[in-house]
Design a protein that fits this description.
InterPro entries: Gal_Oxase/kelch_b-propeller (IPR011043), Gal_Oxidase_central_sf (IPR037293), Glyoxal_oxidase_N (IPR009880), GO-like_E_set (IPR015202), Ig-like_fold (IPR013783), Ig_E-set (IPR014756). The chain has about 550 residues and is mainly beta. The chain is about 5% helix and about 35% strand. The protein is built from three helices and 43 strands. Bound molecules: 2-acetamido-2-deoxy-beta-D-glucopyranose (4 copies).
């Protein structure tokens, strides 16, 4: 054997040893967001939207900086979107007919943008994979299509009739605490003949109640968390039920941002449980200039089961491995929750504490994510074993979302009033992906899924399952990937569906959610997980696909 062929053989062995390396979690940086990604929402199998403040972003449109961008997951590039109004610190969600809406915003700092506080910015459905076709541009008509109230730092979630409930916010530019609150709710499309509904909870939770954490519960009511308080709001009766405070003085809404998520809902009962992590236990009567960027955040996670017995039992407390202000809690298709981003000390908002670091009210970024396993026993749920560490700080104004490929996209971070460079916490345009081990393994594939899923129905999906996967147990997740901003993922939802794999492993029979309250009707992704290996997601329309408000569908449970 010649020397050359020995070398070739050695290389081949080295190559296969490399390929056989155990798949692991990893961070991969790829691409830049064009505009600062302070809000992110997945809008199609290949596209997501980033929104920023109208300022000096590098991406240009019509001869001025853009403040919205369409991100293409196939190319990892961003193209500018044409917005009329300022989307700074807005919320957003999808409607029952598949259109995505960006809600609220701010008074712009540049003349290219109009006042966005009553903003309603419509997008899609956009079916072209590259975002070039009809429906793939933002539609705005501020004179005729707008909210009833000015809302900055509001939260929008889709409810059981497919419309959006828009909760709270502030009227004006407030530097830290909510000093000009919008203590009411409205809907899009509007209900109550366009009147707003006062909500006493918003008044009680001042001054730390911006971006209220709001969830559509499976009975059609809504859970709301602001400051250290929690209520159930009955949308149909317009009544509040007060639940126990989050323990130990922990406050979790802006500017003391912790995060919160509904845990996955499972058949047959779809019992709702909420998980709240991070934030701050500081006293909210201290003036902001007497707070410091070095005040410790809390590591507390609190979990409550939203049933009469669960409420009686109260919040269960456990702790993350690190304190975090501004973390996000991301539901993964296998039912685990990823806790990621944020800092160990300080607060949200820009340059308002006594000693900001550059513009940052927070310091000591947390670079290693943690995983929360809802089914594990108390005290054993949180771990960072096997999770990688990044070197990119994701502090105020960052975003994160599960992608249709099943990995996690992380973008943004800008504790500054505009795009700045060269300071300790400068504006971050690098997009990063957190790849679970399955991204480098043979994965199950959903080869045929109905494009529409009606409620309380059995349907069949065609699948291909690699023979490296030994189990025949399937987890089928129906997911709204949510709208990420300000340490909260508005509208994020995971509903597991009963599912059985056929003996030939070529199809799965699935039972859809019983009704439009368990999964508010609208667009979603279906993911299949086997042996902790998750497929790519397939986009579906859940429910009748009509414009809101839609009628009740399926059966009540
Ligand atoms: C970044 O993404 C592009 C488009 O998918 C791909 O071609 C390229 O290989 C990726 N680069 C890295 C470093 O992963
Ligand atoms: C919630 O905050 C209020 C106002 O600071 C405080 O009086 C109350 O004790 C807190 N609740 C808990 C359970 O810590
Ligand atoms: C900041 O400067 C670095 C180095 O020149 C550059 O790579 C990066 O893109 C800049 N960031 C922004 C937000 O302009
Ligand atoms: C969805 O409904 C909204 C609210 O009525 C409407 O503005 C939008 O045009 C609708 N989208 C489609 C695709 O019908």
């Amino acid at each position: 054997m010649g020397r050359f062929s020995i070398l070739v053989q050695l290389l081949a062995i080295a190559g296969s040893a490399c390929a056989a390396a155990a798949p692991k979690w990893e961070f991969v940086q790829n691409g830049t967001s064009g505009v600062l990604a302070l809000e992110a929402i997945v809008v199609s199998p290949t596209l997501a939207i980033f929104f920023d403040r109208a300022t000096n972003d590098p991406l240009q449109i019509d001869g001025h900086p853009a403040w919205g961008a369409l991100w293409n997951f196939q190319t990892n590039t961003a193209r500018p979107l044409r917005l009329i109004t300022d989307s700074f610190c807005a919320s957003g969600a999808h409607l029952s007919n598949g259109t995505t809406v960006s809600v609220g915003g701010n008074i712009p700092a540049i003349t290219a943008a109009q006042d966005g506080r009553m903003g309603l910015r419509l997008f899609g459905p956009c079916d072209d994979p590259n975002g070039d076709g009809p429906g793939c541009e933002i539609f705005e008509d501020p004179a005729n299509l707008h909210l009833v109230e000015n809302r900055w730092y509001t939260t929008a979630v889709r409810i059981f009739d497919g419309s959006l409930m828009v909760v709270g916010g502030t009227h004006e530019d407030t530097p830290f605490y909510n000093t000009d609150p919008v203590n009411n709710i409205e809907f899009f499309p509007s209900k109550d003949n366009g009147a707003t509904r006062p909500l006493a909870f918003l008044e009680r939770s001042l001054p730390v109640n911006l971006f209220p954490r709001v969830f559509a519960l499976p009975d059609g009511t809504a859970l709301m968390i602001a400051n250290n308080q929690t209520i159930i709001y009955d949308i149909e009766k317009n009544t509040e039920t007060i639940l126990p405070d989050i323990p130990n003085g922990v406050r979790v809404t802006n500017p003391f941002d912790g995060t919160a998520t509904l845990l996955p809902l499972s058949p047959p009962n779809f019992t709702p449980e909420v998980l709240v992590c991070g934030g701050s236990a500081s006293d909210d009567t201290i003036p902001s200039e007497q707070l410091t960027s070095q005040d410790p955040a809390t590591s507390q996670c609190s979990r409550l089961t939203i049933t009469p017995e669960g409420i009686k039992k109260g919040w269960q407390v456990e702790h993350m491995l690190t304190p975090r202000i501004m973390p996000e809690a991301i539901l993964l298709p296998n039912g685990q929750v990823l806790l990621i981003n944020g800092g160990k000390t300080g607060y949200a908002a820009v340059a308002s504490v006594g000693d900001p670091i550059g513009g940052s009210n927070a310091d000591h970024p947390v670079f290693t994510p943690e995983l929360y396993t809802p089914s594990a026993p108390l005290g054993k749920r949180i771990s960072n074993a096997g999770l990688p560490t990044t070197n990119i700080a994701r502090m105020y104004h960052s975003s994160v979302t599960v992608t249709p490929s099943g990995n996690i996209m992380i973008a943004g971070s800008n504790p500054n009033a505009e795009i700045v460079n060269g300071t300790e916490f400068s504006s971050e345009l690098r997009v990063e992906f957190l790849n679970p081990p399955f991204m480098s393994m043979a994965r199950p594939k959903l080869t045929k899924v109905p494009s529409q899923i009606l409620f309380n129905q059995k349907f069949t999906m065609q699948v291909s399952v690699p023979n490296t996967i030994r189990t025949n147990t399937v987890q089928v997740a129906l997911m709204d990937l949510g709208f990420s901003s300000h340490a909260f993922h508005a509208g994020q939802r995971l509903v597991f569906m009963d599912a059985v794999l056929s003996p030939d492993r070529k199809s799965i029979t699935v039972t859809s959610p019983p009704n439009n309250r368990v999964f508010p009707p609208g667009p979603a992704f279906v993911f299949l997980t086997m042996d902790d290996v998750t497929s790519e997601g397939i986009k579906v329309m859940v429910g009748n696909g009509q414009s809101p408000p839609v009628r009740d569908q399926g059966i009540r449970i």
